[in-house]
From TrEMBL:
<dbReference type="InterPro" id="IPR017972">
    <property type="entry name" value="Cyt_P450_CS"/>
</dbReference>
<protein>
    <submittedName>
        <fullName>Cytochrome P450</fullName>
    </submittedName>
</protein>
<comment type="similarity">
    <text>Belongs to the cytochrome P450 family.</text>
</comment>
<dbReference type="InterPro" id="IPR001128">
    <property type="entry name" value="Cyt_P450"/>
</dbReference>
<keyword id="KW-0349">Heme</keyword>
<keyword id="KW-0479">Metal-binding</keyword>
<keyword id="KW-0503">Monooxygenase</keyword>
<dbReference type="InterPro" id="IPR002397">
    <property type="entry name" value="Cyt_P450_B"/>
</dbReference>
<dbReference type="GO" id="GO:0004497">
    <property type="term" value="F:monooxygenase activity"/>
</dbReference>
<dbReference type="GO" id="GO:0005506">
    <property type="term" value="F:iron ion binding"/>
</dbReference>
<dbReference type="InterPro" id="IPR036396">
    <property type="entry name" value="Cyt_P450_sf"/>
</dbReference>
<keyword id="KW-0560">Oxidoreductase</keyword>
<dbReference type="GO" id="GO:0016705">
    <property type="term" value="F:oxidoreductase activity, acting on paired donors, with incorporation or reduction of molecular oxygen"/>
</dbReference>
<keyword id="KW-0408">Iron</keyword>
<dbReference type="GO" id="GO:0020037">
    <property type="term" value="F:heme binding"/>
</dbReference>
<dbReference type="Pfam" id="PF00067">
    <property type="entry name" value="p450"/>
</dbReference>
Length: 405
């Protein structure tokens, strides 16, 4: 029976929630709020920032896979580029829609292809072994600075072809980039205020003459010669690698080590079968979701799981909450290195899915293999300290002591 004057199926009310997913208290322990967001409904409205939110797997996946309705060209942070001037010139890949996105994506996809991974694999693996050698000499160290940061810093800037001088700007620059996706809170405002020297460094390193031959940077510039991209576009695509290629893997590797240190049964399984290294890294990306959130902007009025959303609205996707949605995952809150992780949205999904995912997985895999081959035990010996960022989840410090195998 139909209620008079009421449609059989129609838009339902969207629950309004009074949560700030960019507050320090939220970052300290996001999981109870993730659950609240998922349970409130398929689509919620966050009054604090006047945005829609999706935290269930199905809706996060649906939004990621409808880029015509949920666009990226108006920014993937809270700021709407149609209404506000971006803090830096927009990324030609992240903050672009088809057809513009298709061409730049193809370039980075080729630069970071499986063939290129085969060429760099031995170098990445040797650097991981060398890092583990150094850690075995120390026995007690900080797994963030001495491992999760030191390892990517020992290979990625070289792989890009950056000169030695000024590399200390790389992580601070990325930290600005990821804070800037957030709302105009203290984290974002202070990051942008202090960004000038980091921006100047990055702009300079993106120039063709500053990138060593054979590196990822030079490979991007080489596409100018075959007319795939213009000479003005190339430096901005190099900037994308500098923005997204380092801090993400630092937090990915940090997440994996933090998981393996907390869950010794999983560490033992990995030691018994090194072929589980790639899965152990992937599961850490699902479990911790180093990139926690991204926004999209609606290009038209749309109905999403019964909720009517107008044109020009920001939609916040809780990737981390989707990655632990019990509607999609068995025992979502357990770290299981043999889990079938495929479909997790830690690298996104659809046309914008992480173009550097093979580099990230390569770094994660060879590092976990090097660790598991030579170390019997990883013990956390001090209070882990969290690093607060509007988009990235990770630690500032993780004191550990290792026992050699
Ligand atoms: C996040 O500048 C960019 O193109 C860019 C910046 C940040 C990311 C991606 C691309 C997702 C890792």
């Amino acid at each position: 029976m139909t209620v008079p004057n009421s449609p059989v199926i129609g838009p339902s009310a969207v629950p309004h929630l009074d949560v700030d997913p960019f507050a320090m208290s939220f970052f300290a322990d996001p999981y109870p709020t993730h659950e609240k967001l998922r349970e409130a409904g398929p689509v919620v409205y966050l009054d604090k920032w006047n945005v829609y939110g999706v935290a269930r797997y199905a809706e996060v996946h649906a939004v990621l896979n409808d880029p015509a309705t949920f666009c990226s060209s108006r920014g993937v942070g809270l700021s709407d580029f149609k209404k506000e001037t971006p803090w830096r010139p927009p990324s030609l890949i992240l903050e672009a829609d088809p057809p513009a996105h298709t061409r730049t994506r193809a370039v980075l996809s080729k630069v970071l292809s499986p063939t290129v991974m085969k060429q760099v694999r031995d170098r990445f693996a040797a650097a991981a072994e060398a890092r583990v050698d150094a850690l075995l000499d120390k026995r007690s160290f900080d797994a963030i600075t001495d491992l999760a940061e030191a390892y990517p810093l020992s290979i990625f800037p070289d792989a890009l072809g950056l000169k030695a001088e000024g590399r200390e700007h790389l992580i601070p620059y990325a930290s600005v980039v990821f804070n800037a996706f957030g709302p105009p809170n203290q984290l974002r405002q202070e990051a942008i205020e202090r960004s000038a020297p980091h921006q100047a460094y990055v702009a300079e390193q993106c120039q063709r003459e500053n990138l060593a031959p054979g590196g990822f940077g030079a490979c991007i510039h080489a596409r100018v010669d075959d007319g795939e991209i213009t000479a003005t576009e190339a430096p901005l695509l190099v900037r994308s690698l500098l923005s997204a290629g380092l801090d993400t893997t630092v937090n990915g590797i940090g997440a994996a080590v933090y998981c393996l240190a907390r869950f010794p049964d999983q560490w033992q399984r990995l030691r018994e079968d090194l072929s589980l290294a790639r899965g152990a890294f992937e599961e850490a990306v699902r479990f911790e979701s180093p990139v926690q959130t991204f926004f999209r902007t609606t290009t038209r009025e749309v109905e999403l799981s019964g909720a009517k959303i107008g044109e020009g609205e920001k939609v916040l996707m809780f990737l981390a909450a989707a990655n632990r949605d019990p509607r999609r995952w068995d025992k979502p809150d357990s770290y299981d290195i043999t889990r079938r992780t495929s479909g997790h949205v830690g690298f996104g999904s659809g046309i914008h899915m992480c173009v550097g995912q093979l580099v990230a997985r390569l770094e994660g895999e060879v590092m976990l293999m090097a660790l598991a081959r030579r170390i019997a035990k990883i013990e956390i010996t001090g209070e882990p300290k969290r690093r607060f960022n509007n988009t990235l989840r990770g630690l500032d410090s993780l004191p550990v002591t290792i026992t050699p195998a």
